[in-house]
Specification:
The structure is a single chain. The chain has 135 residues and is mainly beta. Helix content is 3%, strand content 19%. It is built from one helix and five strands; from the N terminus they run E-E-E-H-E-E. The radius of gyration is 26 Å and the shape is elongated. The termini are far apart.
Length: 135
């Protein structure tokens, strides 16, 4: 057990049974009642070979940006309520497997124009490409 009697560093507001580890710069780990662990810091780093989170109900991230330096795999649908953007790099290809469904009006429909499908999807080995229709 490590203790300090210097009151300016002592964490306030802990309930009976709660435990805290904290620094003089304000970083802290608090083990709270009801099996809650809070971590507060400027940067949180984990270095390991594998990192596994098993959340029975859900896992949430409240952040303006979430990124990965490599691949991202989802075993369910990916929803984008603010839109979805796919940007390719050098030689990158967007690949789709299964049906591609569209909901909502196209720009031509919103302008009151005649709805025509100027492109159709054709399947080639390992990729789809848009092919311009004629006639």
């Amino acid at each position: 057990m490590i203790a300090t009697e210097h009151s300016i560093y002592r964490l306030q507001g802990l309930a009976n049974g709660e435990v805290a580890l904290y620094s003089d710069e304000g970083a802290k780990i608090v083990i709270r009642r009801e099996r809650i662990i809070e971590v507060e810091c400027d940067e949180y780093r984990v270095k390991c070979k594998r990192y596994h989170v098993q959340a029975e109900e859900r896992a949430g991230f409240e952040t303006p940006m979430l990124s990965t330096s490599q691949a991202l795999t989802a075993k369910g649908p990916i929803s984008g309520h603010g839109g979805v953007t796919i940007n390719g790099g050098d030689g990158a290809v967007a690949r789709f497997a299964g049906d591609i469904k569209h909901q909502g009006a196209t720009p031509a429909q919103r302008r009151g124009g005649n709805q025509r499908h100027p492109a159709k999807w054709t399947q080639e080995p390992d990729t789809f490409r848009a092919v311009r229709r004629t006639g």
